[in-house]
Amino acid sequence: MKPATFDYVVPRTVAEAVEALGDPEREAQVLAGGQSLILEMHLQRSRPELVVDINRIPELDRMNVEDGELRVGALIRHAAFESADAVPGPLGTLLSRAVVNIAHPPIRSRGTMAGSFGWAHPASEWCAVGVALDATVEVTGPDGPRALAARDYFLGPYRTARGPRELITAVRLPLLGEHTGAGFIEHRRTHFCFAQVAVAAALTVHDGVIGDARIGLVNSADRPVRARAAERTLLGAEFGPLPTGAGSRTTIRSPAPAGSPPRRTPRRSPNRMPTSRTSGRPSPSWSAEP
Questions:
Q1: For residue 233, what are the contacts with CB-CB under 8 A and spacing of at least 6?
Q2: Separation of alpha carbons 151 and 166, rounded Å
Q3: Confidence category of residue 270, pLDDT binned at 50, 70, 90
Q4: What is the pLDDT confidence band of residue 1, given thresholds at 50, 70 and 90?
Q5: Terminus-to-terminus CA distance in the chain, angstroms?
Q6: How far is CA 229 from CA 190, 193, 269, 279, 281, in A?
Q7: What is the per-residue pLDDT for 194?
Q8: For residues 129 and 176, what is the distance between their CA atoms, to the nearest angstrom?
Q9: pLDDT value at residue 266
Q10: Angstrom distances, CA of residue 96 to CA of 33, 35, 83, 110, 132
Q11: Quick check: 141 and 176 in contact, CB under 8 A?
């Protein structure tokens, strides 16, 4: 199947892109990496009358740290985060551990973080990271620029608070402090499938006690969500000794009331899809892989 007929423009500035998107009589789509859009157009599930290719706008192809935040321009590719050294501190660790779960190298070399926020798929790794860290999405439209908090940005599958004539120009993520540990884990049937469930987490520990917890869940609802009940449980919990050596584990002990019985794990079919739980009383202790 081939795409339906469409017009194609290549603006050289953000202003030109916004002007191209501003025609209310035409359905328009933005092309950055195109790793979702092109497939949908080939299947004719998306039939834009106009495609606005932003790949020739230099100001969108920049990533820098300013005011304690990492600002990721709309043209920064997934592959830019594969090295933990690309971004300072624990945030670089989190992004590098998340990005390897995104498809495979050819897609990571073309797709963009901003594109993931624009597409808003519930299985998107970046969107869950953004929600967990209270990211900010910068957009520019006919009425000028504005900033949207990630917690308010996602409205459902493929639905966001961004207006149809607005362009995502950048995503801002707060840097993580030196006492913060971060990780990402994902389960899917094959390497080429979307995540069935995944978790992005960042814990800040002072004197062996968890002072801040941020947990974002992938594909656990119709949009990325914070596991706020789990976060509240972790606050004030004692963090066990840091792991040493491969395969070691560290234990987190919850401040649950003494005498709380441990939750029994029911027997599961090997073919049953994993689920995540974000509410209810936790076990008194559990282990976390480093």
A1: 254, 256, 282
A2: 18
A3: very low
A4: confident
A5: 46
A6: 30, 29, 27, 5, 9
A7: 87
A8: 12
A9: 46
A10: 19, 20, 6, 16, 16
A11: no
**With helix as H, strand as E and coil as C, how does the chain read?**
CCCCCCEEECCCCHHHHHHHHCCCCCCEEEECCCCCHHHHHHCCCCCCCEEEECCCCHHHCCEEEECCEEEEECCCEHHHHCCHHHCCHHHHHHHHHHHCCCCCHHHHCCCEHHHHHHHCCCCCHHHHHHHHCCCEEEEEECCEEEEEEHHHHEEECCEECCCCCCEEEEEEEECCCCCEEEEEEEECCCCCCCCCEEEEEEEEEECCEEEEEEEEEECCCCCCEECHHHHHHHCCCEECCCCCCCCCCEEEECCCCCCCCCCCCCCCCCCCCCCCCCCCCCCCEEEECC
State the residue for tokens 């995502």: 168
Say yes or no to pLDDT of 137 above 80.
Answer: yes
Would the pLDDT of 7 be above 60? yes
Please enumerate, as own/partner, the contacts of 12-15 that have beta carbons within 8 Å and a separation of 24 or more: 12/56, 12/57, 13/57, 13/59, 14/57, 14/59, 14/60, 14/140, 14/167, 14/169
pLDDT of residue 70: 98
288: CB partners within 8 A, 6+ apart: 249, 250, 251, 252
Q: What is the pTM of this model?
A: 0.83
Q: What pLDDT, in 10s, does the model give residues 201-240? A: 999 999 999 999 999 999 999 999 999 999 999 999 998 7
* Cα R_g (the chain), whole angstroms: 21
The structure tokens 């990325």 sit at 224
